[in-house]
Specification:
The structure is a homodimer of 252-residue chains. Chain A has helices at residues 5-12, 16-25, 43-57, 62-69, 75-108, 115-120, 128-135, 137-175, 182-196, 210-223, 225-228, 233-251, and strands spanning 2-4, 32-33, 39-42. The first copy, chain A, starts with a strand and ends with a helix. Helix content of chain A is 71%, strand content 4%. A 3-stranded antiparallel β-sheet of chain A has the order 1-3-2. With 252 residues, chain A is mainly alpha-helical. In chain A, strand 2 (32-33) and strand 3 form a beta hairpin. The first copy, chain A, folds into 3 domains: 2-73, Orthogonal Bundle (Multidrug-efflux Transporter Regulator, Chain: A, Domain 2); 74-110; 113-251, no CATH class. In chain A, helix 7 (128-135) packs across helix 8 (137-175), helix 8 packs across helix 12 (233-251) and helix 10 (210-223) packs antiparallel against helix 12 (233-251). Chains A and B meet through helix 3, helix 5, helix 6 and helix 11 of A and helix 1, helix 3, helix 5, helix 6 and helix 11 of B. Chain B binds a DNA duplex (30 and 30 nucleotides) through helix 2.
DNA sequence: GTTAGAACTTGACGCTACGTCAATGTCAAG
DNA sequence: CTTGACATTGACGTAGCGTCAAGTTCTAAC
């Protein structure tokens, strides 16, 4: 007793196309192919098909299902491995949801969503090679320890202050005042305090020469558009650079 | 001031292939194409690229990002819609995880994972058309009410008893005893009690003729392989059918 | 001036699990 | 004999690029 491809598809709650697909993958061969080329499936094939569909509903990939059916992998073992992957996906989704939520909040608050990129410039995992090349391996390791040492709350505060600073720099640059004037110098003071205010900040690390570091940082804001963007583009970054240089020359 | 495709790719933390891909999708065109065909990107392009990458990290599709960038859709609006989809995905994953976990437990308990398919045969949503055709519309509606009325716990118990019955039927059929003998008749009695034991069971519905219903059910186990599978295939189902017929003839 | 090597270009296939035509052949019923 | 239902193989499309492949151009060394 066997059935045509449509019949078995309805019995199992799937489509004939799927059955052909499984056929060419080697997952489920027809039990018989008639002289006219029509596929026919018997009861054993139905049972196998039901197992396939059950595993597929659990989210297993077809190759993994194939291994289970061929006995290459224990069913429980394959499912346990799959469970790990599912949990990872769930966590990834949870993180994404959290990110989207905070982003929406920021947008509703009228912010310009700049902190992410600003922070990316310092991200220890993403730009490790580049950071090491720019500031040296020791500086990277020290910066990494420093960042981790901040903890959740500290990191959050650091980023919040970075955002506030960025907005104020942009406003100052657009207002047309001089970088060496009182507004620019006040901002430069805040900027240096932001960099050095937290104990262990990398500002103090590369040689301990804070003055050279601050000046170099200003140059970098101009040279590296990833930072420049946070200060309103190249022109804004030039304003920051000039203000920092003037401040460093006078005060540091 | 602009940069080559490789430079901008490194600056933004992506690859040149991705940039070309965005180019042909119309998401991000090079700001300039030199006489030699090389792509070049300026600062505005970099900012746009960073927005694209940020939205992409949040899980938005490239077409949706395109709409946001073209101003066709508000950023917050697009993200809110996306958030709904993310939450749905998360729930789907949660259900899948739960299913995989219970499946693993069953496997470790040595069960044969039959309950799913057995239940599928009665699933009100999946096989509604077929059930209506086989038993009539009223029977379907009644069965649906009955099943919902059981509640979580009741449904679980009903399925557990179905599984236990299936195992015992298979064992009896394989032991070689007669369907009309004491073992077969004892099982038939349990089977009917299982069907009718819960108030409102559909067994009593289709006309109230329990005897005809039980006999018809036995035939269906043989005729419909989806049920037969739960009793060890066609041969097992034939054993069940014969035992049920004998029991119905004698006792009902 | 030449030449090796790096960087650039435009195709085009591959991956998941099928859905969806397209063109054509087969079978049962009227 | 025709019609309609059902079968076949073949091939494209999906999301977002990774990854060759084959050919051109730039750069720096010799």
């Amino acid at each position: 007793m066997d059935w045509s491809i449509q019949e078995i598809a309805k019995l199992a709650g799937t489509t004939s196309r799927t059955l052909r697909h499984y056929g060419e993958l080697g997952l489920l061969a027809p039990s018989r192919i008639a002289a006219n080329g029509y596929r026919h499936y018997d009861e054993r094939a139905l049972v196998r098909l039901q197992r396939i569909l059950l595993l597929r509903e659990l989210g297993l990939g077809l190759p993994a299902i194939g291994e289970v059916l061929e006995g290459d992998a224990g069913e429980a073992h394959a499912l346990a491995a799959h469970l790990g992957w599912l949990r990872q996906e769930q966590q990834r989704l949870a993180r994404q949801i959290a990110s989207v939520e905070t982003t929406i909040e920021k947008l509703e608050g009228g912010e310009r969503l700049m902190a992410e990129e600003m922070f990316d410039g310092f991200d220890h995992t993403k730009y490790q090679d580049e950071v090491e090349e720019r500031w040296g391996k020791d500086a990277y390791a020290a910066g990494d320890r420093w960042w981790r040492g901040l903890g959740e709350a500290g990191q959050h505060e650091w980023k919040a202050r970075a955002e506030a600073l960025g907005r104020d720099w942009i406003a100052a640059a657009e207002s047309g005042v001089e970088p060496g004037g009182p507004e620019g110098q006040a901002l430069a003071k805040r900027h240096v305090e932001w960099l050095t205010g937290i104990p262990g900040t990398p500002a103090a690390k590369p040689g301990g020469d804070v003055k050279a570091y601050v000046i170099g940082l200003g140059e970098m804001y101009v040279a590296d558009p990833r930072f420049g963007v946070n200060y309103g583009g190249t022109e804004g970054a030039e304003f920051v650079r000039d203000a920092l240089r003037a401040y460093a020359d006078r005060e540091l």
